[in-house]
Backbone:
């Protein structure tokens, strides 16, 4: 026997015979769902970059080159194998690469090529909602790729501590610290040639001189200070400490604060640059 609500209505029915009101969803979530719909149709194209590429990259550097490095001593690496040294750095730098890829050409293309942002302007979405929804999708992609690399680290024996599980959110934060500012800038770009300069003169030097493949102690003093100021070094250092189980808490807090502030600045700037570019 059905239980009736007060007034003789079935439970959940709106009073006075009115139509049921749908749950209120933040508009940014609708923008995020748009990108999920796009990704469900193109996810196969990301299998290499997201699934196979990191595995082969980690294997080539950690197990291939690593055997040569380990053969000549690992004192400069803190006494750990080259695989254990480089794996968390690949995790952080991979998050940066994903962030740069997702926040550059897709943002520019949404204005100039496929016009996704232009179509969104005709909806109730505000420029800030469009930005935050897309940034949510970028963060999801960063987290997905970082999760896979974390699993590979465990499978290959590169993780030396149970704290390595925290390297996954640390890498995701690293990626967000890149994605938010780059997306805020990319929506203002008028030519895609600017991204070639970003990858060539931004991404490559960061990967080479942020402690990714060798200790910063091997760099000259002035270049070492410059490396400490880069966001990738903070991400690499944080992921490496967690993976090795040798966490210097004050330094780790500085790393987290640096990346969080950079991401917050990017989110703040993005809300403004999107409004200036998309507001009609």
Residues:
């Amino acid at each position: 026997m059905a239980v009736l609500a007060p007034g003789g209505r079935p439970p959940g029915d709106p009073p006075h015979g009115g139509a049921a009101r749908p749950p209120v969803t933040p508009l940014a979530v609708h923008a995020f769902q748009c990108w999920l719909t796009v990704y469900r149709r193109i996810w196969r194209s990301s299998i290499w970059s997201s699934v196979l590429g990191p595995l082969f990259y980690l294997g080539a550097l950690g197990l291939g080159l690593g055997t040569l490095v380990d053969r000549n001593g690992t004192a400069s690496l803190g006494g750990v194998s080259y695989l254990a040294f480089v794996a968390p750095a690949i995790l952080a730098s991979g998050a940066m690469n994903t962030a740069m890829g997702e926040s550059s050409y897709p943002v520019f293309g949404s204005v100039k090529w496929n016009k996704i942002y232009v179509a969104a302007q005709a909806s109730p979405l505000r420029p800030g909602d469009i930005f935050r929804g897309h940034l949510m999708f970028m963060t999801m992609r960063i987290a997905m790729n970082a999760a896979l690399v974390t699993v590979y680290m465990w499978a290959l024996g590169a993780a030396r501590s149970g704290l390595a599980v925290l390297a996954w959110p640390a890498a995701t934060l690293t990626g967000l610290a890149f994605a938010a500012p780059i997306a805020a800038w990319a929506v203002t770009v008028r030519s895609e040639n600017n991204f070639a300069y970003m990858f060539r003169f931004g991404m490559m030097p960061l990967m080479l001189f942020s402690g990714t493949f060798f200790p910063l102690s091997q760099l000259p003093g002035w270049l070492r200070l410059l490396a400490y100021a880069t966001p990738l070094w903070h991400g690499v250092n944080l992921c490496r400490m967690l993976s090795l189980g040798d966490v210097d808490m004050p330094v780790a807090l500085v790393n987290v604060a640096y990346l969080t502030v950079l991401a917050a600045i990017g989110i703040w700037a993005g809300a403004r640059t999107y409004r200036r570019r998309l507001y009609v």
Remarks:
- The first helix runs from residue 27 to 42.
- The radius of gyration is 23 Å.
- Residues 1-8, 16-23 have pLDDT under 50 and may be disordered.
